[in-house]
Automatic annotation (TrEMBL):
Keyword Nucleus included in the entry's annotation: no
Source species, domain of life: Eukaryota
GO cellular component: cytosolic large ribosomal subunit
Basic and acidic residues: bias regions: 20-35
The keyword Ribonucleoprotein belongs to this UniProt entry's keyword annotation: yes
Protein name: 60S ribosomal protein L7a
Family under the similarity heading: Belongs to the eukaryotic ribosomal protein eL8 family.
Role according to the record: Component of the ribosome.
GO molecular function: RNA binding
InterPro entries: Ribosomal_eL30-like_sf, Ribosomal_eL8_euk
Stretches the record annotates as Disordered: 1-43
Keywords, sorted A to Z: Ribonucleoprotein, Ribosomal protein
């Protein structure tokens, strides 16, 4: 069979734009090379995510990543803030004394007065309570209902 020669002025139809984009994507080198999964006996079925994890400088992997150990280097995170002043430190202590269990036992005398007020529809507010859990304090701060928040001295602000 005879091959036809193209005319010098004519060009063939170019490939669609989608095909050109796919060819360009194939040429790019992936960030992580794919490894074939090996589900035989004795091999882990989970994907190896060690390439995605960045460990802090004071934590190192020992062996095959099974054991982690922390070096005794100084922490580079947040320096410990100084303690509270006298005025700020007395506020939570007075509140703790005011709302302690002994104070609640002494307030039992007020229950008959509250019961007599109940049918008339008098407004009885909830008693103030000290909150000491992280989650409850966080929700109170988010709802702007916390009046005084005193963090612990060794609290890590990044967590």
């Amino acid at each position: 069979m005879l091959k036809r020669e193209k005319a010098k002025g004519q060009k063939g139809a170019s490939a669609p734009a989608t095909v050109r984009k796919q060819e360009a994507q194939k040429l790019e080198k992936p960030l992580f090379e794919k490894k074939p999964k090996n589900h035989w006996t004795g091999h882990p079925a989970q994907r190896d995510l060690s390439c995605c994890v960045t460990w802090p400088h004071d934590i190192h992997q020992q062996g095959s990543g099974v054991t982690l150990y922390v070096t005794e280097s100084t922490s580079h995170r947040e320096p410990a803030h100084p303690g509270l002043g006298l005025q700020t430190a007395t506020q939570p202590l007075t509140l703790a004394h005011k709302y302690s269990r002994d104070h609640k036992r002494n307030s039992r005398d007020s229950w008959p007065r509250l019961r007599s007020c109940w049918p008339r529809g008098c407004s009885t507010k909830r008693p103030l309570v000290l909150q000491a859990e992280v989650n409850t304090v966080t929700t109170l701060v988010e709802n702007k209902k916390a009046q005084l928040v005193v963090p612990a001295r060794d609290l890590n602000p990044s967590s």
